[in-house]
Design brief:
Length: about 280
């Protein structure tokens, strides 16, 4: 055999071997996806709502929406460590989805017609209601009309307190504070008589260690808030997320997440809603 031909054959074999290793390496890096970071998934949540979505001082994330999003991500093939959490403030949610900055959003995101023109929603996965939080020893507020002549707090820019004044208690004295924590402090100190927003949000705040036992939900159910998972318009993730939500309910994980995040505030949650069933 010609030694030169042997050399060429050896080079060709070595090149083929190197190519096979390279291809195998790429597969390990991207998990079979289209890019080297395909295992990452970016999820929008609230960073400032205890019980819903909260970034803690040590950099971890807690809350019902965090638990729901983590479960969904798992069903989509992602470990918790694959999730990149991104803050999704209320005013930014549609923009984040439209720009592709996040894969999906779970951030106390009520489904309504205006939003549904811009993004798609999986779910709903929780039926919340506008309610009021009062001191646990308060027996003077038993129905919405009792809020007349009471100091009713909500955060600046929220429509919750105005809804109460317009429709249910025209003599309510509206107090707007910069954040829910300020309202809670006022409620604790007797400066405020009641705080209003979604019952799930109220329950999350009241469930914090420093407030346990001090407040209770009145249970007024003044509106229906269908929380959905926001995805980009036309995204194939919608159906996959719906399947994940159905599984979360079926295996008991949904109920566990509700009790874990809202239970201490005497939150009487609605049964898990059926996918696509929007309660008006």
């Amino acid at each position: 055999m010609n030694p030169r031909k042997l050399t060429k054959a050896g080079v060709a074999a070595a090149a083929a071997l190197a190519l096979s290793f390279s291809a195998a390496g790429c597969g390990d890096d991207d998990g079979g996806g289209s890019g080297g970071d395909s295992q990452k998934i970016t999820v929008g949540i609230k960073f400032d709502q205890p019980g819903i979505g909260l970034k803690t001082p040590d950099g971890t994330y807690t809350g019902f929406d965090v638990d729901v999003a983590t479960y969904i991500a798992k069903e989509l093939g992602h470990d918790p460590g694959d999730i990149e959490w991104k803050e999704a403030k209320s005013a930014d949610r549609e923009t984040l989805l439209q720009r592709g900055d996040v894969d999906f959003i779970a951030a106390s995101y009520s489904i309504n017609d205006e939003r549904a023109e811009k993004v798609d929603f999986a779910g709903p996965y929780l039926l919340a209601h506008q309610d009021v939080l009062i001191r646990s020893d308060d027996k003077s507020i038993t129905k919405p009309a009792d809020l007349n002549n009471k100091k009713l707090c909500s955060v600046t820019g929220s429509t919750s307190a105005q809804n109460v004044k317009t429709k249910l208690a025209p003599q309510a004295q509206l107090q707007e504070y910069g954040g829910y924590s300020e309202c809670l402090t006022g409620l604790e100190n007797g400066v405020i008589d009641a705080l209003t927003t979604d019952d799930s949000i109220l329950a999350g705040y009241a469930a914090q260690d420093e407030f346990k036992g001090k407040f209770k939900l009145a249970g007024f159910k003044m509106s229906n808030e269908n929380y959905g998972i926001g995805v980009q318009k036309g995204s194939e993730l919608k159906d996959r997320i719906n399947t994940a939500l159905e599984k979360m309910v079926a295996d008991g994980s949904w109920e566990q997440a509700v009790k874990k995040n809202f239970g201490p505030a005497n939150y009487k949650n609605e049964p898990p809603p059926k996918i696509g069933d929007i309660v008006k």
